[in-house]
Amino acid sequence: MQFDRASGVFLHISSLPSQYGIGDLGDGARLFLDFLASAEQQYWQFCPLGPTSAGLGNSPYQSYSAFAGNPLFIDLEQLKADGWLSESDCEPVPPFDDHAVAYDAVTEYKEPLLRTAVAEFEETATADEQRAVDAFVAEHSWVTEYATYMALKNRFDEQPWPSWPDQFRNREPAAIETFQTEAKETIRYHIVTQYWFDTQWQSLRDAAADRGISLVGDLPIYVGLDSADVWANPDAFQLNDKNEPTAVAGVPPNPGDDGQRWGNPLYDWDALREDGYGWWIDRLERLFSLVDVTRLDHFQGFLQYWAIPADADSPAAGAWRDGPQDAFFESIDEELGSVPFIAEDLGFPDEELYALMDRFNLPGMRVPIYSDWCQEGSTHQPIEYPHNVVGYTSTHDTDTFVGYYDDLDDRQRGCLHYNLGVDGSEISWSIIKAVWESDAVLAFTPMWDLLGLDSHARYNTPGTLDGNWQWRCTAEGFAEEIAARLADLTDRYNR
Predict the structure, then answer these.
(1) Catalytic residue chosen out of the listed positions 198, 218, 397, 399
(2) What is the pTM of this model?
(3) Contacts of 334 (CB under 8 A, 6+ apart)
(4) What SS3 class is residue 444?
(5) Is the pLDDT of residue 104 over 80?
(6) Residue 68, C-beta contacts closer than 8 angstroms, at least 6 positions apart
């Protein structure tokens, strides 16, 4: 797909304003859409939408499902309007922090309310309303798999599925059918909440389209071992006869680091190719039913992936293996058409990788935080961006630009000033201007850079579990003067 020159803002759903402790699909999301429209932006980008785990730091990149939505994002106000909750059900609302998500407290508050709402729905919903849920289940085979998996996790004290009794770990049909009958209320809870997420999301997507705004989703290349995806599709992954990974994902050591061991199971690309990459096609069909554009995280893994033996202590013990390469993207083109992707190619300046991206016209990413400001021609300097890239002022995995700037040494800071022609007095807007002015076909800034926030607003520090994915924006952050200033840059640089 060819993109037109345009721009947008990154803000994950959890970061939206809401009285219930976490962003949701209600009024705060529409307030943000109004802000984007006022700022003349065409794109809203966010992290993956799936349900998260407290044990994995609530990372949206370590979800229980690549298909399901996070039930914590369901708008309680809409459930009130639909008659499934009352005002008294929701009172008292705890004194949540408007600036940070306390996931444990939010879950403790919202999950019982969702269960109350589902109970009310099951008791009082009309036949048409019940049929709408049944039609949703019939259309999406993943829903029952996900709901059964989550109910089994509840049955077995949240233990990972490879530790479940054999008949459930191996999905023996008789055992699963019996369990589905025994746990039908719990399974129904997960089904109905997924239906509500989906209907609320589609309403939000319609609201975005009405304002001329496209939604940019995010697809992590790997899924977690403890997920409905691997449990329901073990043949798609490199597992042994005990359903344990034989090798796991990561990246090799580079000068100055020890590499990374992510621990995700790796795909059995040969088996996937034999059935036409069916699981991946289903995954992408689901994602593109929710968003308009998708960022492919760790694009390198489609060319070559780093396979670390499961019993190895160090990422250095791994080896490069060939990924699916052209055959994968050709299959996507055949099944889905020319769908719009952004390739996350950071950290892998490889000509073979760029050639793969070029063959399928996939723009890569550039982030000025990775620049050497004193080196002429440094590829992440905005002045060096070619046309077919997406420029970001910062990302969900980096510091805010102000936080990064504050930590620069005097030499790099001086070179940055010279490179951008600024004095650093308003560095956040200086880098937004530079990225908007660049030749990059798309330009994005996270909301924290629009607000000029320092490191306290950093969203995620890779390799850590605590303190991430918490930052929130208040409604006051969507100020008209900020929207007007961004609109001015957008007009000036023809985005």
Answers:
(1) 397
(2) 0.97
(3) none
(4) strand
(5) yes
(6) 50, 51, 142, 143, 146, 194, 197, 228
Q: How many CB atoms lie within 10 A of CB 341?
A: 21
Element (H, E) at 341: strand 341-343
110 secondary structure, DSSP code: H
Secondary structure of 38-78 in the HEC alphabet?
HCCCCEEECCCCCCCCHHHCCCCCCCCCCCCCCHHHCCHHH
| Beta carbons of 198 and 69 less than 8 angstroms apart | yes
Residue count of the chain: 495
Say whether 182 is catalytic. Answer: no
| pLDDT of 444 higher than 80 | yes
Residue tagged active-site, from 218, 297, 399, 437 = 297
- Contact at 8 Å (CB) between 50 and 60? yes
Question: In this predicted model, what pLDDT tens digit does every residue of 367-426 receive, in sequence order?
Answer: 999 999 999 999 999 999 999 999 999 999 999 999 999 999 999 999 999 999 999 999
Spell out the domain ranges in the chain: 233-339
Is 297 catalytic? The answer is yes
Nearest Cα to 300, choosing from 230, 347, 255, 231? 347
The sheet with strand 260-265 has its strands ordered as 260-265, 247-251, 304-309, 319-322
- 397 flagged as catalytic: yes
From the list 24, 40, 344, 449, the catalytic residue is 344
Given this model, what pLDDT does residue 189 score? 98
Residue 471, judged by CB atoms within 10 A of its CB (0-12, 13-18, 19+), counts as buried
DSSP letter at 219?
Answer: E
DSSP collapsed to 3 states, 79-98: HHHHCCCCHHHHCCCCCCCC
Question: In b/e form, how buried is each residue of 389-401, taking b as 16+ CB within 10 angstroms?
Answer: bbbbbbbbbbbbb
